[in-house]
Write a structure and sequence with these properties.
The chain has 189 residues and is mainly β. The chain has no helices and 13 strands.
Length: 189
């Protein structure tokens, strides 16, 4: 949904992650933040963009700031920033357990992706858990050449968010991912 915003694009940097581009300016000018904390990838070849550390099951909202941000949001990000937040204001009357399910497919790679999760919480904190699996096959280039690009992965995540004061939270997340059959050089990047 974020990539449908005018001025926002994405460049595929790894097997399953997209790196945001704001108004044509890439990673060196777009800051990524998790709960207002800057995040950087470890690989100099950009095969682990910062958004690979933000699991879908742990995120409640994504805010895109175009252009120079306020100094209250931190340094860097001269093209803008992407702020992924796990904070969600719940009331004591929130549903005790909220399950969710997502699924999708990719016709070009004859693949599928599915994700399921469960969350609960109140105004003092919340717990979230999710599992995800995907299986994509090879694809055929525009000139009819078969390109090996098989990818399979399974992942799981667990996140907690505890309100420790009126303006303070303690947040932690644990993620486990197993990827197989990945042929990075031939993926459509």
């Amino acid at each position: 949904a974020a990539l449908e915003t005018p001025g926002i694009a994405g460049v595929r940097r790894s097997a399953s992650q997209v790196e945001p581009v704001i108004r044509g300016l890439g990673w060196e000018r777009v800051a990524i933040q998790l709960n207002h904390m800057p995040v950087y990838g470890a690989c100099p070849g950009r095969m682990d963009p910062p958004l690979s550390y933000a699991t879908g099951g742990g995120a409640e909202s994504v805010e895109i700031v175009k252009g120079l941000p306020s100094v209250t949001q931190g340094s860097a990000g001269t093209a803008g920033r992407v702020i992924v937040s796990s904070a969600y204001e719940r009331s004591d009357t929130s549903q005790p357990w909220e399950p969710w399910l997502r699924a999708g497919s990719d016709g070009a790679r004859e693949g599928w992706q599915g994700e399921a999760g469960l969350e609960t919480g109140n105004n003092r904190g919340e717990l979230k858990a999710h599992v995800e699996a995907l299986d994509y096959g090879d694809y055929t280039s525009a000139d009819g050449t078969p390109v090996p690009a098989r990818q399979s992965s399974m992942s799981a995540g667990f996140a907690t968010n505890l309100r420790t004061g009126s303006d303070a939270r303690w947040w932690t997340s644990l993620g486990l991912r197993e990827e197989t059959d990945i042929d990075y050089p031939s993926l459509p990047m």
